[in-house]
Amino acid sequence: MGNLNVIAIVMVIGLTIFTVGLAIFVRRFTRTTADFYLAGRKVGTIANASAISGDYLSAASFLGVAAAVYASGLDGVWYAAGFAGGFIVVVLFIASALRRFGEYTVADFAYGRFGSDRIRLVTVVMVLLTSLFYMAPQMYGAGTTWTVLVGAGVFGLSPYNTGVIIVGLIIMFYVMVGGMKGTTLNQIVQFWWLWTAMFLVVVFAFTAGKFSYPATLAEVTAENHRDVKTYTVADLTADDGALLASAEGAMSPEAFEEVQAVVDAGDPAATVGVLVPAKNKLHTLRDMFFNEPGHRYNSFDQFSMVLALVLGTAGLPHILNRYYTNPSGAAARRSTFWVLIFIGTFYILAPIAGLAGRQIIDNAWRAGAAPANASYVDGLLLKSDAIMPTIAQILGGEWLMGAVAAGAFAAMFSTTGGLLIASASAIGHDVYEKYINPGGSEARKVFVGKASVLFFALVALGIGLGIPAVGLDKAYPALIAMMVTWAFAVGAGAFVPMLLTGIWWKQTTERGAIAGMIVGGGGSFFFIIMNILKQLGRLPDEGVLAFMGSLTFPTLFTFPAALLTIIIVSKLDGQLPKNVDEIWMRIHGTASERHERDMGTDKVGSMFSSGGK
Amino acid sequence: MASSAETTVRTASGIQMQHGDHIDTIESVDAVFRAQRKLSFAYGAVFFVVTLAIPAMSVWWESWYVTPVWGGFTVNYLVVSLLYYLFLWGLSYTYIKKADKLDENLSHMADEIAAKTAVAPVGGGENG
Question: Are B5 and A594 in contact (CB < 8 Å)?
Fold first, then answer.
């Protein structure tokens, strides 16, 4: 039985009730989809930007970025920079055009732009794939946070599994009663809660934790970077105990004694956490240091990760959906600027928390004051994804931990709820209503929608439970950020080439777009699965399969391949939609906005304009 | 989803869309498209060159990722953790200013082109 953090748990329950209550309350005023979007049109730029930021920040940003920095140093910092940079691609290439075209979803855009049922179905499949990749880290974050927060399971389940199941059930309830994806108001509250919690952790680190950004970075970098890994005794003693000797060199004598005791017990299947020197994958002849690149990524992946992150944002269906709530293309751009300010400041703070964790958690552990619910190896967290609640408890006790844990759960509820709705509507609305039973009764459609929510919630729950079962949590040092970036990679491969060419190249044909989505999305999915298999040791160390499995992020390969495929197939195909001029005018025409400007309906508040606008 | 105020008109030379007093013709839309494409792709080129230059220097320029410049900060760490955001904010701010100005100019240009190219409908209009 772990330590119950009563105050923190009460705060989490309080925020959960507040969030669900707000969703129910606001739903009374948003009875229809049209009401929802009209309400969005009345929201000012700052509020809309807060809502987009709240939609964007999931468990990956809140728990995963700090964890990635804690585990991987500079390679982890890139998650923050890349997540923020993605919005530049959105504002430059996507936002205004999508707002003008006026479709709600990526599937609607594909159908409206290319005019075929076939492309709608392919898009639906890709939306489901992206959503599942995005849901998995939320559920993993739920289990990890529950473990640190509550430290206990129910009905004989582990704390992790209990967390996944309880959070999964709450999300199911949240979606059922809250209906449509969290309201604008809920997203705003959630974002500012997350931002404040992250800000407080960093402020406490500078004050209570005696943290200094440049000095701590120098201190952490003074020694070779070390990895926390879990091995069996058989692994440690193989090859004349090479791994064991390596661990002995990387660990303190006291900590290594505990490892040695497990080895001496003689059970070859017993597992034990050890520290081993990290290898530099980028500059293989150099030692690995915290402030240098190369802990996670070789030269290919350095570029590919950056591309996946900055392109992936423009391929996230639930983010693109929000752009319709802007009253004009100009307002969409202004919202994006404020999003960049809001999430930019958040992403500057998150790596500070990750670095502070290296120092503060280690100090607390050596002083015997580290939270008991987390697991450590010689002062380092066994699971880096537990860093945020752990460092919060050390720095600010249960109150700060409660704020952090409540923020994490709110992010999971909102993001997973939104993804469940997106997945369910893809099946219920885009497939069932359009193709399987177009004439079905309203009650039947609602039933299919709810059944879809239930199905995808159970799938998400199953994935959450399956992650430790297949050993994925041990295969990657900062799993939450990694898994979300897989979703980015699939989105970047499947949707961004189709959106870019659909918006900016009139000659794009339906066949070209479909081929590009299959190459980009399917290719990304294939390479990610291969990488997972390689990390789990299911692929050979050399040969073609090993090479395919070595691409942590395939975007550097899949994005240009998808783009090229669209261009080549479109050229060969040459069959444009009959109403391509009309479609083109809907994407790039400005008469509507000029009319709205005349009517004064394009104004929602502006920081850039003065005087008349 | 088309605006409820939209009217699509089919003419002998193509289609045009009308919202209130404003008309889009394919000629005016193409002109707007080309100007917007030039602006977006120019800023896009700057964004990708700078963004991809960072990992490029991480791969090929040792001083960039090894030499400390402030405590434990290398230039590489400083750029990715702090300075990159200033670049993003500056880029998006200047882009939005230029895009707003372009919108303003294009709205006049589109009206002028549409006035020259818009023609009387041959088959009547349809609400879109």
Answer: no
If one counts the domains in chain A, the total is 2
User: Helix, strand, coil shares of chain A as percentages rounded to 5?
Assistant: 75, 5, 25
Report ipTM for this prediction: 0.88
Look at residue A602 and tell me if it is in a domain. no
More confident residue, A560 or A609: A560
Ordered DSSP codes for B69-118: EETTEEHHHHIIIIIHHHHHHHHHHHHHHHHHHHHHHHHHHHHHHHHHH-
Q: Do B99 and A594 touch (CB under 8 A)?
A: no
Same-domain pairing of A323 and A437 = yes
CB contact under 8 A, B24 and A585: yes
Domain match, A272 and A328 both: no
Let me know if residue A164 belongs to a domain.
Answer: yes
| Gap from A105 CA to chain B (nearest CA, Å) | 11
When pLDDT is cut at 50, 70 and 90, the band that residue A553 belongs to is confident
Closest in A581, A590, A608 to B96, CB measured? A608
Cβ contact A59:A167 at 8 Å: no
Report whether pLDDT(A264) > 50: yes
CA gap B16, B118 in Å, rounded: 7
Which of B51, B77, B96 minimises the CB distance to A334? B96
**Who among A306, A594, A595 is closest to B55 (CB)?**
A306
> Which residues of A are less than 8 Å from B118 in CB distance?
none
Residues A94, A182, single domain; the answer is yes
Lowest mean pLDDT among A3-12, A108-117, A124-133: A3-12
Hey, what are B37's tokens? 């494409």
| Chain A environment of B92 (Cβ under 8 Å) | 87-88, 91, 336-337, 340
User: Do A386 and A249 fall into the same domain?
Assistant: no
Same domain, A202 and A168: yes
> Within a domain: residue A283?
no
The reply to whether residue B106 touches residue A591, judged by beta carbons under 8 angstroms, is no
Whether residue A294 is predicted with pLDDT greater than 90 in this model: the reply is yes
Question: Which residues from A are below 8 Å from B30, CB to CB?
Answer: 588
Tokens 């040792």, residue located: B62
Whether residue A94 contacts residue A503, with contact meaning beta carbons closer than 8 Å, is answered with yes
Residues of chain A neighbouring B111 (CB-CB closer than 8 A)? 594
Look at residue A399 and tell me if it is in a domain: yes
Determine the number of helices (DSSP H) and then strands (DSSP E) in chain A.
28, 4
Per-residue pLDDT of A82-109, as tens digits, reads: 999 999 998 899 888 887 887 667 888 8
Query: In which domain, by residue range, is A252 found?
Result: 226-277
Q: What is the pLDDT of residue B12?
A: 60
Per-residue burial over A549-575, b = 16 or more CB atoms within 10 Å of its CB, e = otherwise? bbbbbbbbbbbebbbebbbebbeebee
Instruction: Looking at the structure, tell me whether residues A292 and A403 fall in a common domain.
Output: yes
Distance from CA of A454 to the nearest CA of B (A): 30
Contact A214 B70 (CB under 8 A): yes
CATH number for the domain harbouring residue A85: 1.20.1730.10
Residues of B in contact with A353 (CB under 8 A): none
Q: What residues of B are in contact with residue A340 (Cβ under 8 Å)?
A: 88-89, 92
**Interface contact B12, partner A, CB < 8 A:** no
**Contact (CB<8Å) A591/B85:** no
Tens-digit pLDDT profile for residues A234-243:
999 988 888 9
Same domain, A247 and A373: no
Residues A262 and A139 reside in one and the same domain: no
**Per-residue pLDDT at A609:** 37
